[in-house]
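Tutorial handout. Part one gives the primary structure; part two gives the three-dimensional structure as tokens.
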Amino acid sequence: MNNKELKALVSLLDDEDTEVLSHVEKKIVSLGGEVIPYLEQFWEENFNPIIQRRLEDLIHTLQYDLLKRRLLEYKESGGEDLLEGMWLVATYQYPELSLQQVRQDLEQIYYDAWLEYKSDLHPLDQVKLLNSVLFSKLRFSANTRNFHSPTNSYINNILETKKGNPIALCIVYMLVAQKLKMPVFGVNLPNLFILTYKTDQNQFYINAFNRGLIFSKNDIDNYISHLHLMPDDEYYQPCSNLTIIKRVFRNLIGAYEKIGDHEKVEEVRVLLHTISDPGDAKF
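Part two.
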């Protein structure tokens, strides 16, 4: 369909006949995400508020469908790139966000850490050094004031404000650590997300929400006991990137529930379902 034909379709978006309107909307959606730039251009050129509102709805539908396809591809490919997964989450709210820009922003943080990093240090000292860079020099910190804000789930906001919830800070920490070749991985604890430094010889744990506090397996034992839960291997061992992205989506659902945005709650539930398996936790 050429630009002229698409423009003719758009002109019918203020038709009062619901059947005509439904047919036009379905036809535009069937054209796929490649028509989004043209719809955005038509929105700028059109001063009819009804057409503008319907164009906004169509653009959102097309962007949302594109995100669902990308998430499914991400899942089927194994979710190897955690930063890509976090970018996909962020494109729900910021559909124009560039993955390249997010990579560049993270690269700058990695560079600051790399300048001070020493690979021959003891693992505990490596972690303390990274803690110093992230939490003292770069001033990453816990977002205690807006702990439940949806912004804590969007990687571009986290990198810009340097504030986040436990899983957000852990993700930034882990991405930087792994670029430094440190064996640091996420651990999916109930009600808290932490990190583990794990090799064949060493394993200890890191709480990025508490400025990189280092602790032991015994501390996790006590935490699990306090929650009256039975010990489970997943409380101590690294989890997959897909598990992390699912947890971010669950946090996002909770954040939108708290502010009463029920439409976004349902949309994010569908996104979570897209990358979930039958045996996953309920959402």
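Part three, for discussion. The mean pLDDT is 92. The radius of gyration is 22 Å.
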